[in-house]
Amino acid sequence: MNILQINSSARSTGSESTRLADEIVARLAARGTATVTRRDLAAEPHPVLDEAALQALFTPADQRTPAQSARVALDDALIAQAQAADVIVIGAPMYNFGITVQLKSWFDAIARAGVTFKYTATGPVGLLTGKKVYVAVTRGGLHRGGPSDVQLPHLKTFLSFVGLDDVEFVFSEGHGMGPEAVARARAEAQQQIDAALA
């Protein structure tokens, strides 16, 4: 089993979403032979999608400059990791009601027409199929199921867009609300992990 772990916190250490992602990966790896690839988007930030990147992506491969080829190759590497994975585990903290810029850059990198999705007469079709996804969602406040939770629809929509439809979410909320709330959040997240990996 090939497991790809994506840590998208801005912090390389002390991140609750990374802690939960680590636990999910450890539990999965303990089931049998597994190869784990970890990508820490804080330690190894992926460049944002800017004008130069767009120009590189939309220039035919045989006409790209060396700099453009190098830029596209960065995205190619992330796509190859996602394609090779049997399981993808994502640590996804909420920042200002949304996903982090680190995760957005990863999303932008792996979304490529004709490679991870395609357009058809009836709409887009995702091509990263046959994979299991676990997403550890952490928040400072309590947002799940409320109008302020605009992060979850974004995650669900993007993952489905590229063909990742078999997704389990683990929530840990209230980390900015004091020690008791943190302890409660961690206990509830542990229960969700236990249920998801039973």
From TrEMBL:
Record key words, sorted: Flavoprotein, FMN, NAD, Oxidoreductase
Residues covered by the Flavodoxin-like fold domain: 1-195
Organism superkingdom: Bacteria
GO function term, MF aspect, one: FMN binding
E.C. number: 1.6.5.-, 1.7.1.17
InterPro entries the UniProt entry points to: Flavodoxin_fold (IPR003680), Flavoprotein-like_sf (IPR029039), FMN-dep_NADH:Q_OxRdtase_AzoR1 (IPR050104), NADH:quinone_OxRdtase_FMN_depd (IPR023048)
Keyword Iron (UniProt): no
UniProt keyword Oxidoreductase present: yes
Cofactor(s) listed in the protein's UniProt record: FMN
Record-given protein name: FMN dependent NADH:quinone oxidoreductase
Organism this protein belongs to: Pseudoduganella plicata
